UniProtKB/TrEMBL annotation, chains A, C:
<keyword id="KW-0560">Oxidoreductase</keyword>
<feature type="domain" description="Extradiol ring-cleavage dioxygenase class III enzyme subunit B">
    <location>
        <begin position="9"/>
        <end position="271"/>
    </location>
</feature>
<dbReference type="Pfam" id="PF02900">
    <property type="entry name" value="LigB"/>
</dbReference>
<keyword id="KW-0223">Dioxygenase</keyword>
<dbReference type="GO" id="GO:0018579">
    <property type="term" value="F:protocatechuate 4,5-dioxygenase activity"/>
</dbReference>
<dbReference type="GO" id="GO:0008198">
    <property type="term" value="F:ferrous iron binding"/>
</dbReference>
<dbReference type="InterPro" id="IPR004183">
    <property type="entry name" value="Xdiol_dOase_suB"/>
</dbReference>
<protein>
    <submittedName>
        <fullName>Protocatechuate 4,5-dioxygenase beta chain</fullName>
        <ecNumber>1.13.11.8</ecNumber>
    </submittedName>
</protein>
Automatic annotation (TrEMBL), chains B, D:
<keyword id="KW-0223">Dioxygenase</keyword>
<keyword id="KW-0560">Oxidoreductase</keyword>
<dbReference type="Pfam" id="PF07746">
    <property type="entry name" value="LigA"/>
</dbReference>
<dbReference type="InterPro" id="IPR014159">
    <property type="entry name" value="PCA_LigA"/>
</dbReference>
<protein>
    <submittedName>
        <fullName>Protocatechuate 4,5-dioxygenase alpha chain</fullName>
        <ecNumber>1.13.11.8</ecNumber>
    </submittedName>
</protein>
<feature type="domain" description="Extradiol ring-cleavage dioxygenase LigAB LigA subunit">
    <location>
        <begin position="37"/>
        <end position="122"/>
    </location>
</feature>
<dbReference type="InterPro" id="IPR011986">
    <property type="entry name" value="Xdiol_dOase_LigA"/>
</dbReference>
<dbReference type="GO" id="GO:0018579">
    <property type="term" value="F:protocatechuate 4,5-dioxygenase activity"/>
</dbReference>
<dbReference type="InterPro" id="IPR036622">
    <property type="entry name" value="LigA_sf"/>
</dbReference>
């Protein structure tokens, strides 16, 4: 039986991909960030998950303005790194887990989630940067990936409550997959940042840490935070944190925090990550 | 079953989104208005289009169903005006890349700071949310 | 304030489009079918709806195998008739109602429906045949259309219960649109038919009529019919009738039946239609 | 709030779909298997592709990532085999159109009847569901 054994929430700042790809990850600017991920990288090397359900958002790479799926699940065999305007990142292709992905997609639709299924797409920094943070620069990614792309760009994006409920449904789906698989779920994006307008550069250390506290707790108050609170407190792009709720919803009522790290800034963004284990 | 988040009326929801200082939330209204600005920007993901654009920006823009105002803003890289006209930063970032401009530097042009000032603000902990949360509330 | 004033369920058989386009609608084969729609055509001419929310499915025209949205709502300004392999139908372009469509899309997402928004697409017989049945051959369609494309091809398709709930949410959304608009909602497809395999040609007059009875009733038992019942009783393509439930769900608890017609066969298909009015 | 439809396990749900006589429900498993058959068929929506296909069917098929078995079935218009290989009738209908074959006539080739026999069955009220509902149940 497949099982979700852990959840990771993590920022997915494009500049971190640049730091890895250009070997700058030990310099003064990036050193403290990568140091914060060190424990997690070692933990992942020990855990050896078979599959990661990777919740992220497409940043106008695979989807143009024409089509905006709220929840799109990648059911393909592999995905190439997207050219975001300066050439694709020099990272391995991402291998899908089509069997598990289709199983999850089917289960979710039966569970009244209105999924969009996608077979072929390129994946951008939202998906590949977290892989680099967790696994460094391997010849080949050590996990298969089920990409789950969430619209967090055009409003309304899905509610926190809906994201949490989707996570719960994903956990049910994984548990009904017959093959033995060690599955992790990652929620990516955030933390506080604003990339547009005169208010650009807003960061909110206090709120971000309160959010991490809420994720680590045994109650589900975090699912009821309204969009406007993310926007006011954490900048227009801080809304990406709703994707962490899909991860958290998949872990059940109680969780144990294995690691937690927060650093300001990386480019325009507050970097944070948290590693959680179901504790029910 | 857990408690439901209280559902909000869409008009109230959208009105709140307009109450954030110095921020244009990418609502449906903006997505509609800026549709072709964003599709133009997306076209720059292809190397051949970037070359054609660089060779003659005006001629390339004239191939698109974009208002003169938006074309001028694109030519001037006036990103705040482009946000007003429905541009979205993830689409517009294809233009940053075409220009070879780092993302954060391009973002800084939307603020009242120079790029070095903006960079220093970020190193110092970023822009504070205090006073930046609500236009009406002023908090 | 906009209001849903009526709902129509109707088959959308491609051959009916051919009959209209080639002027065969009065011959022996098609005569009885078009006669059954006569009252409804006159009623539509009197009702003069401003907008039709037209629930249909794409038959591998706008969407290829790569992307499969469960619920896609058309938010564009206009749509062209698709070339389904023998040239586009010679019908007027379909004019969208982008203001209402975006309002509904936003409201639905806020209401935890995971919509896919689509701006540009061609529309196939699923959408244009019902327009021809209701409005004949005008120079210009007398209504604007909000297309709502439902996946009823790749399994699982959305449950009847989810479709009904979507209809309820659409009704709430329409009622919160500030402009005065006379809005109809149409659910199309069906009735019994099977287009594939050795069992092709299955029709089920009894079941189809029971389904029409259930739609016309004041209880919502019809939303709980499982997919397997549609498939066993009405053929593999009879599942399209789940789209009628979106229409029915939008009309509220009680309805008044204004017209009802059933005929066998049209090509491979049992033709039926029903006109309902909210009666709460 | 109304009563919820009882939720079903996906394995039970899919098992039921396989219990219908003479029918291949287009499940995920079939959609995956037949992906390129269906994408090939979809390509015939463009007039220039139809012409290239008609000029040399085998050569056109060889451009696609399709098994030899599927290519043979496509060349023979063996639609039941194509359904087994993951073809879906709405995609395959682009091939009916390319052949200029009416939809119902193409459908009749999947049954044990000739086209006139099939057409007559439909005029007589269609195929009865009796005995055609369930393989296991035989009803
Ligand atoms: Fe992001
Ligand atoms: Fe249909």
């Amino acid at each position: 039986m497949a099982k979700i054994t852990a959840g990771v929430g993590s920022s997915h700042v494009p500049l971190l991909g640049v730091a890895v790809d250009q070997g700058k990850w030990q310099d003064d600017y990036f050193g403290p960030i990568f140091k914060g991920y060190e424990w997690t990288r070692e933990w992942e090397a020990r855990e050896k998950p078979d599959v990661v359900i990777l919740v992220y958002n497409d940043h106008a790479s695979a989807f143009d303005a024409n089509i905006i799926p709220t929840f799109a699940i990648g059911c393909g065999e592999h995905y190439k790194s997207a050219d975001e305007g300066w050439g694709p990142r020099p990272v391995p292709d991402v291998e899908g887990h089509a069997d598990l992905a289709w199983h999850i997609a089917q289960s979710l639709i039966l569970d009244d989630f209105d999924m969009t299924i996608i077979n072929e797409m390129d994946v951008d920094h939202g998906l590949t940067v977290p892989l680099s943070m967790m696994f460094g620069q391997p010849e080949k990614w050590p996990v298969k990936v089920v990409p789950l792309a969430v619209n967090v760009v055009t409003y309304p994006v899905p509610s926190g409550n809906r994201c949490w409920a989707l996570g719960e449904a994903i956990a049910r789906a994984v548990e009904s997959f017959p093959e033995d698989l060690n599955v992790q779920i990652w929620g990516t994006g955030g933390m506080s940042h604003q990339l547009q307008g005169p208010r650009a550069g807003l960061l909110n250390r206090e709120w971000d840490n309160k959010f991490l506290d809420m994720l680590a707790s045994d109650n589900d108050d975090v699912r009821h935070i309204p969009h406007i609170e993310y926007l006011r407190e954490t900048g227009s792009e801080g809304i990406e944190m709703v994707m962490w709720l899909i991860m958290r919803g998949a872990l059940g009522k109680s969780v144990k925090t294995l690691n937690r790290h927060y650093h300001i800034p990386c480019s325009n963004t507050a970097i944070g990550h948290i590693v959680l284990e179901p504790a029910d | 079953m857990t408690q439901e988040t209280p559902k909000q009326n869409i008009h109230e929801y959208l009105a709140e989104l307009d109450d954030i200082p110095g921020t244009r939330i990418y609502t449906a209204a903006r997505a509609r208005k800026g549709y072709w600005i964003n599709q133009f920007a997306m076209s720059l993901m292809k190397a051949e289009n970037r070359e054609r654009f660089k060779a003659d920006e005006r001629a390339y823009l004239d191939e698109w169903n974009i208002s003169e105002e938006a074309k001028q803003a694109l030519l001037k890289r006036d990103y705040n005006t482009l946000l007003d006209l429905g541009g979205n930063v993830y689409f517009l970032s294809k233009l940053f890349s075409a220009d070879g401009l780092p993302f954060a530097e391009a973002v800084s042009t939307m603020t009242d700071m120079t790029w070095p000032e903006y960079r220093q603000m970020m190193l110092d902990g970023g822009r504070s949310p205090i006073g930046n949360r609500s236009i009406k509330g002023g908090y």
